[in-house]
Amino acid sequence: MFGKRGNEGFGKSGSVAPPPAAPAPAVARSAAPEILAEPMRDPVTQRQQISSPPPLAPQSTARKRPARTELYYDTKSQVFSALIDTIDLSQLAKLDAESAREEIRDIVNDIITIKNFAMSISEQEELLEDICNDVLGYGPLEPLLARDDISDIMVNGAGQTFIEVAGKTIESDIRFRDNSQLLSICQRIVSQVGRRVDESSPICDARLPDGSRVNVIAPPLAIDGPALTIRKFKKDKLTLDQLVKFGAITPEGAVLLQIIGRVRCNIVISGGTGSGKTTLLNCLTNYIDREERVITCEDTAELQLQQPHVVRLETRPPNIEGEGEITMRDLVKNCLRMRPERIIVGEVRGPEVFDLLQAMNTGHDGSMGTIHANTPRECLSRMESMIAMGGYSLPAKTVREIISGSIDVIIQAARLRDGSRRITQITEVMGMEGDVIITQDLMRYEIDGEDANGRLIGKHMATGIMKPHFWDRARYYNEEKRLSAALDAMEKTKD
């Protein structure tokens, strides 16, 4: 159906194969589909069974692969080239994914038979899956994307890929055929969200269909080949209860966060790269009333809100002529005209912080955002700096008054040196005293030491504040009893 030429077009082996060898390929053609049909119904799972490293011992798989890596990749290159010469991609594009995989399987099986490659069933299945991924998916990235225990994928050129598992970075045995294949996969990813990456536009942010964040930087800026970074999100969305289970927060602290989200406090989540800010923001949005109209503004859409009344906005980079750019500030300004009840900014990194603060001050209580900062106090300083970046010539005291009058709570997230993620501070902004913004901690995380395995030991400590600054807001929403009970429980836990 799809061959541009017959099987004899695959190579010399197809035209000069001696007649006595004919029965062997016939057995391969009849047996292979019967043996391989079941795994191909779930190709991701089958690929993991064959080649993905087990989570607890990735080194063992890495030692086994190099013995056959060069031969395997040489065989794959020959088969792939023959497939491209044979298949009609325009016709293949008209099929659904499963039918396209079956067509590719049939042709690849014929190529392997005609070229007389000596391969076991498992090796042939691995090759089939790799080639299907190259043609229809994201190539060597597919098995890594299928693993839910991986939080980051970092590709440093065609020959080196690192992954983060359980907070630790390890080298994967995955590699690409060459930098051209890697760049082609990067272009396939970014084109799905209407963006491009090439020499004229070598930096690009994008996302995968599941919401995972993607960053690509290509040559000539990346000297050793395209650098691809993927921040993966779990298929099952995390909740505050699961964060409690992982030790990121105590049960009493989780109740406190629920109340903060429920009573429409203006929240800023502060933390370093990879500290779990977006995950925590997703968790807090679960406690927004379903009747509220929520508008999200993001550079790359990754928030996963569960409410029915959500409008998602995303920035746009300039086109090839340098025109048409839509910045975060443009989005925040525009969403004020869309009758929002809450505004959520995925990441505040520039002058748009001023517009967000203005929104918080003008009836959009319960708005949220994230900022890169190491402490709540540094978070406040960064807001001042970002407002200055917008060219506003306001006195420092006026800027601080705007900040203190807008932000109610700062939640500090951190990734510790053992790879664990913790909510290290819940801090409320009290107001101004002179020229200084006054804050107080409701809860802190204190590190006591580490165990024999190098895991940090610590505990969340209450600070003894029994009536927070947002107490009246909690009473307005009939949450004062639950708030009091949570603070009491935190104090008893400290004792």
TrEMBL record:
Q: Does the keyword Lyase apply?
A: no
Write out the biased-composition intervals (Low complexity): 24-33
Arranged from A to Z, the UniProt key words for this protein are: Kinase, Transferase
What superkingdom heads the lineage? Bacteria
> Boundaries of each Bacterial type II secretion system protein E domain copy?
138-411
Q: Name one GO molecular function term.
A: kinase activity
Report any Pfam family annotated for this entry.
T2SSE
Which stretches of sequence are listed as region Disordered? Answer: 1-66
Q: Which SUPFAM superfamilies match?
A: P-loop containing nucleoside triphosphate hydrolases
The entry's family comment says:
Belongs to the GSP E family.
Q: What is this protein called?
A: Secretory protein kinase, CpaF
The gene behind this protein is cpaF
